[in-house]
């Protein structure tokens, strides 16, 4: 049975790959920023409807789209629901690639590979819709807007994207892996990401009279340096945490000490309990320095994306599928998580699941750069893992019924 299913899936992938490749090129040429994915959303919905899915829902959490495919194999009506997710938004970056399908929009490009993520999920939907008689349950295809600004997943889930879902998976194209490889790990896969804003209120003065001022630039500089001691001297070094002051704004003239400065940045953790303590730790440093240097301050801290925690059972299933499909040597166990963040973590608060990395080539330039391109070569591997993973989850009754 499994051999025949494998052959059926691979045969369908070969059939659909030329069209899926064209879809990726179309998506790459027509990127849209977060919360602006209207045309992308409409195009995806139209494409899904061509596949004769049981339901295509638009306007989920904004510009989100959800397609549902119900299998017709014996027991499918009472079977589980497995979800696959892809993100849709692009980045405000001017593309520098010299390729036929280069972005048509100035200053906007798919520099994180979401064109590839969408095309892969559409390809999986196309393949699985042709194999409906083999499916013992329901597959939900989730196309999510606004991943890059963190907020899209939360809106999707608030609008019912995860209702009735038993498990979920997603992929992310990764330049550190060769095409045909996947990277997996259980537990923390990506860090949480929170933001902070600090407004320092001093007293302005002539640059030649610093004794008349309460210089917010000096205060801000000391705060910036002191915040780094949280990770190096206060928190256990085996507990990863990154505090980054990414913006520092003050003043408008060469010869004027400003009266105000603003600092903005992020805090990233892998331990949810440590994460809870970070606002107090940061504000203590800010308050102490401002008090010592006679400045006032305003401090705000916003909890953003939580830790992406991969469920061991779903990771194990991805590993099994990967070994069978790609070969054991091409399933890479990741030694460490990334301190980057992914709002796929929000879905994992509603159902067990996992994200894996899909190799796009070690020579490919890094994510979020003007020359990044997901490429066409990874598509059949991503589609293959998605399809086999969905089939295996629906097929494996003990896992679906209570193994999680």
Total DSSP E strands: 16
The share of residues in helices is 25-40%
Q: What name does the CATH topology of the largest domain carry? A: Aminopeptidase
Instruction: Report the uncertain regions.
Output: none
| Overall 3D shape | elongated
Structural class: alpha/beta
Q: Which range does the strand content fall in?
A: 15-25%
Strand order across the biggest sheet?
1-2-4-3-5-16-6-15
CATH architecture of the largest domain: 3-Layer(aba) Sandwich
CATH homologous superfamily (4th level) name of the largest domain: Zn peptidases
Q: How would you explain this protein's 3D organization?
A:
There is one protein chain. With 404 residues, the protein is α/β, with parallel strands linked by helices. It has 2 domains: 2-190 and 307-403, Zn peptidases (Aminopeptidase); 193-305, Alpha-Beta Plaits, CATH 3.30.70. It has helices spanning 2-29, 38-50, 114-129, 152-158, 216-234, 272-292, 312-326, 379-395, 397-403, and strands at residues 55-60, 64-70, 81-87, 138-144, 167-174, 182-184, 187-190, 193-201, 205-206, 241-250, 256-257, 260-269, 296-305, 308-310, 331-333, 353-359. The protein has an 8-stranded mixed sheet with strand order 1-2-4-3-5-16-6-15, sandwiched between helices. A 4-stranded antiparallel sheet has the order 10-12-8-13, covered by helices on one side. The model has no long low-confidence stretch (mean pLDDT 97).
């Amino acid at each position: 049975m499994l051999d025949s299913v494998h052959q059926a899936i691979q045969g369908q992938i070969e059939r659909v790959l030329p069209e899926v490749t064209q879809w990726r090129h179309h998506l790459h040429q027509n990127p849209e920023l977060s919360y602006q994915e209207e045309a992308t959303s409409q195009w995806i919905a139209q494409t899904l409807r061509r596949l004769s899915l049981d339901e295509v829902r638009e306007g989920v959490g904004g510009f989100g789209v959800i397609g549902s495919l119900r299998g017709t194999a014996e027991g499918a009506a009472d079977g589980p629901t497995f979800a696959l997710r892809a993100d849709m938004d692009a980045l405000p970056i001017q593309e520098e690639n010299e390729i036929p399908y280069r972005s048509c929009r100035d200053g906007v490009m798919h520099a994180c590979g979401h064109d590839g993520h969408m095309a892969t999920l559409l390809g999986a939907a196309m393949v699985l819709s042709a194999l409906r008689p083999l499916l013992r349950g329901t597959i939900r295809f989730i196309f999510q807007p606004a991943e890059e600004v963190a907020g899209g997943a939360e809106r999707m889930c608030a609008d019912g994207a995860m209702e009735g879902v038993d498990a979920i998976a997603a992929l992310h194209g990764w330049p550190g892996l060769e095409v045909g490889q996947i990277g997996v790990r259980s537990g923390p896969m990506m860090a949480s990401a929170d933001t902070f804003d600090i407004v320092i209120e001093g007293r302005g003065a002539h640059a030649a009279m610093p004794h008349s001022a309460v210089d917010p630039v000096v205060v801000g500089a000391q705060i910036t340096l002191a915040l780094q001691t949280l990770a190096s001297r206060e928190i256990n070094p085996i507990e990863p945490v990154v505090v980054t002051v990414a913006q520092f704004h003050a003043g408008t003239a060469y010869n004027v000490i400003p009266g105000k400065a603003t600092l903005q940045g992020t805090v990233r953790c892998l331990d949810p309990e440590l994460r809870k303590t970070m606002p107090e730790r940061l504000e203590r440093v800010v308050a102490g320095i401002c008090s010592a240097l006679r400045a006032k301050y305003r401090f705000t801290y916003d909890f953003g994306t939580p830790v992406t925690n991969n469920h061991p059972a779903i990771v194990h299933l991805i590993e099994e599928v990967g070994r069978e499909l790609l070969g054991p040597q091409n399933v890479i166990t990741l030694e460490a998580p990334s301190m980057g963040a992914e709002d796929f973590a929000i879905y994992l608060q509603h159902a067990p699941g996992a994200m894996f990395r899909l190799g796009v080539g070690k020579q490919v330039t890094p994510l979020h750069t003007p020359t990044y391109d997901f490429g066409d070569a990874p598509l059949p591997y991503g589609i293959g893992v998605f399809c086999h993973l969905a089939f295996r989850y629906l097929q494996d009754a003990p896992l679906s019924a209570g193994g999680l």
